[in-house]
């Protein structure tokens, strides 16, 4: 199917054609030919200055431009139009008795879209105008669609970012004894990495970090659905097995219609006891950065949430003492191998984190996620093709 055939019915006859020629007979011949071909909105100019004035008043969909005109020639008109962003994509068909290779090179160098020689063949001119107008209308529609799509994606990005904890939410957690920080960056306009944090019963703090299946818009939509299962936090958020069963059951129901699963972890921290209870569901192993300088891996392997309902998941326990920091993250930190020296597994990442902390210092542990993510992007940004989410939770001293 040609570009002309792709246009909606009646679109061609609504196209605005500007004809600039200083000879009345030539103008009349062109107007007659294009009129018989179905074009209804034809504007005429007798010289270059008038052509620019008319174009300013009504941006045309195509310009048929004579080169040899008084006051302002076609070369100047073409150069002037192309310097204006409004006319950058308007097709300009120049017509001239000049037909040397040098003339053609100059025409295209100045921005002409096409060239016909005088005396012109009416059928050839009609065919060229049809093609250029069709391409212009289709590209204009495509640009408008892209602008609308970009606007909608920007709005979706803002909505997706609103799912993440707000500073006031994190301040509440700090009051419970856990300074939580995170850094999030989508690989495209929107993504599917998700993070939630809530106060739980008994002065405890609950965390959830998840990497939703898919990428881009589809992952973002699934993240919205996941958020609906966790916000407001269910009353059983302090019971890790019950919370996991809730996610497995509901996500599995969705997954029967479309493949949805979430690699993630649920964490429950008791500041009073320093007790850390956690449940792994296929997220990358976390780390505990001890106050004394050591780094311990936190195993988070397991079946992703949503693949199997009724699954009995083991709950592990550990200690997060005052001054220790929990570090959780999604795939980007170990799947950026296109960048030279980037970690390719948890072991490599532990070594990189240790070297990075030696380099940037261990101060501000309550902002560890931001500092680690910033350093990682500084080192390996070119290789980061996935959504990036880093979460840190620093155990504060008892008041």
Automatic annotation (TrEMBL):
<feature type="modified residue" description="4-aspartylphosphate">
    <location>
        <position position="66"/>
    </location>
</feature>
<dbReference type="InterPro" id="IPR011006">
    <property type="entry name" value="CheY-like_superfamily"/>
</dbReference>
<dbReference type="Pfam" id="PF07228">
    <property type="entry name" value="SpoIIE"/>
</dbReference>
<protein>
    <submittedName>
        <fullName>Fused response regulator/phosphatase</fullName>
    </submittedName>
</protein>
<dbReference type="InterPro" id="IPR052016">
    <property type="entry name" value="Bact_Sigma-Reg"/>
</dbReference>
<feature type="domain" description="Response regulatory">
    <location>
        <begin position="16"/>
        <end position="133"/>
    </location>
</feature>
<dbReference type="Pfam" id="PF00072">
    <property type="entry name" value="Response_reg"/>
</dbReference>
<keyword id="KW-0597">Phosphoprotein</keyword>
<dbReference type="InterPro" id="IPR001932">
    <property type="entry name" value="PPM-type_phosphatase-like_dom"/>
</dbReference>
<keyword id="KW-0378">Hydrolase</keyword>
<dbReference type="InterPro" id="IPR001789">
    <property type="entry name" value="Sig_transdc_resp-reg_receiver"/>
</dbReference>
<dbReference type="InterPro" id="IPR036457">
    <property type="entry name" value="PPM-type-like_dom_sf"/>
</dbReference>
């Amino acid at each position: 199917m040609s570009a002309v055939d792709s246009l909606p019915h009646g679109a061609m006859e609504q196209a605005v054609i500007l004809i600039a020629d200083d000879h009345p007979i030539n103008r009349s011949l062109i107007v007659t030919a294009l009129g018989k071909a179905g074009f209804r909105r034809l504007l005429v100019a007798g010289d270059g200055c008038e052509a620019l004035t008319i174009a300013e008043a009504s941006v045309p969909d195509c310009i048929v431009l004579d080169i040899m005109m008084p006051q302002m020639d076609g070369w100047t008109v073409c150069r002037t139009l192309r310097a204006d962003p409004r006319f950058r994509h308007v097709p300009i068909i120049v017509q001239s008795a000049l037909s040397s290779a040098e003339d053609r090179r100059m025409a295209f160098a100045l921005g002409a879209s096409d060239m016909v020689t005088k005396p012109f063949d009416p059928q050839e001119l009609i065919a060229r105008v049809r093609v250029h107008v069709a391409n212009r209308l289709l590209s204009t529609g495509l640009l408008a669609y892209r602008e609308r799509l970009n606007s909608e994606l920007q709005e979706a990005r803002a909505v997706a970012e609103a799912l993440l904890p707000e500073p006031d939410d994190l301040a509440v957690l700090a009051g419970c004894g856990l300074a939580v920080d995170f850094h999030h960056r989508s690989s495209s306009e929107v993504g599917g990495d998700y993070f939630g944090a809530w106060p739980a019963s008994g002065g405890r703090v609950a965390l959830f970090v998840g990497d939703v299946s898919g990428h881009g818009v589809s992952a973002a939509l699934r993240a919205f659905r996941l958020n609906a299962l966790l916000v407001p936090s269910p009353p059983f958020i302090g019971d890790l097995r019950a919370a996991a069963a809730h996610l497995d059951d509901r996500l599995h129901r969705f997954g029967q219609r479309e493949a949805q699963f979430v690699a993630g972890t649920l964490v429950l921290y008791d500041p009073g006891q320093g007790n850390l209870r956690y449940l792994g569901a296929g997220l990358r192993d976390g780390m505990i950065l001890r106050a004394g300088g050591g780094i311990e891996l936190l195993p988070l392997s397991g079946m992703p949430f949503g693949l199997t309902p009724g699954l009995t998941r083991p709950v592990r326990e550990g200690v997060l003492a005052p001054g220790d920091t929990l570090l959780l993250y999604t795939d980007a930190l170990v799947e950026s191998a296109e960048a030279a020296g980037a970690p390719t597994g948890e072991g490599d990442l532990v070594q990189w984190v240790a070297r990075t902390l030696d380099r940037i210092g261990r101060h501000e542990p309550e902002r560890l996620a931001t500092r680690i993510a910033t350093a990682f992007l500084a080192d390996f940004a070119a290789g980061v093709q996935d959504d990036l989410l880093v979460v840190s939770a620093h155990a504060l001293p008892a008041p």
